[in-house]
Amino acid sequence: MGNLTGSFILPDVLPLNHAEHPDLFLEALSVAAAYGNDRLAERFPMGVYPHLSGYTGRGWLIGFDEACYYWERHGIPNPHPDFAVSGIDANLRHHETLREAVAYLGYTPQFLWNGESRCAADRGPASAFLAAAETVDQMEIRRYVTDCLTRRRKPVVCFLHCPHIPIVEAALLTGFDSEGEVVIGQSPYYEAPPGSAPENGCFRLADWEEEVVFIAGLGEGAPTAPEHHPCYRAIENALRYSESYTEGTKHYGLSAYDAWQAALLDEVGTTTGDDQVVSRRLLYHSSVAGHIACQKAFTAFPDYWQAVPSMGIISGLLQRAAAGPQIIHGLMWDVWQVVGGYWRGIEAGDAEYRLRWTNQEEIGRFRERAVRERAAAVIRRAKRTDAQAIEELREAKADWDRCRGQGTAHPCPCRDVPCTRV
User: Would you list the domain boundaries of the chain?
Assistant: First the structure.
């Protein structure tokens, strides 16, 4: 790598907004794709992230993990409320969405799997992804990253092993030092070193190639044209990723609401447990509300729900379905108002507990069954709203599958022949 300059960093890269955007892959991809690309800003004036979240269906991925709520039984001191959409397991399980997201932004997906990564990902879930990715060594990982930064002037999205958490999560690489021996980037799991203000708070990591699991690259050249209208594909993805199921202690989709409210109403350990047990349960409860609020907030943008067939029937169903996530976002704030609003007690912790709940008054409120019953009632209402939105999406897809129309253009193709939809 002697042909590299000593150091390089892309200027003015936007910081990752993990506080509001729980899907770190989509957030990193949004920042990378929009960097130096004015056309994306024109195409997505409301921001790239919400469009990707809705189009890919990833915004419909929600979950509740009993092992995180009953943390003292399972030895999980730090919950991961975003597990349904973040981390290596979720992203390999839904690897099709990674490619769809890149292609939707107008780039050719270019995925490089690090065959020499220190983190040995489970080859079972990764098999389908590996079949479509190029396996490379650490030298090629460095060459790709430095070339993308210096020649194409693009940040690089990668999945980076953070052994101190531990987690493998999306990160954004924005520069390098010492001819590529040290990488510079953004991640909520790697802290910026002291004196890093000139680099916008980015972390610096030596021996970084071995921590990269794979790269999700923005390849040059136009991607393959999609088979379906983007709105239709958004419906398909929403229906697919809103599926309800349970695996071990983890509950997904509508099942997450059931497991969450059932855990709240379980008296064991909450009414009489010590403050440490109760405060960690309260922290996870609060985090789940925040996760669902943020996921739903970015499926509610109606930009896709235009130019669809059936003279307004399908678009009307879609507008009603799109209102569901907006309502759920508000209901999660109602959950917080009842108990667990993050402004009431979450503070930075230490190496053992990264976050702590310190407000004793709120801990006492959480012990009261009547308070938790009020929160559970809001959660049940959110589930009903979600179920209704999913049903309206099913109706919209069924009508679209039968309709020959093109938007609300006149005359309808079925004016003089039997309508295929009715």
Answer: 8-219, 230-402
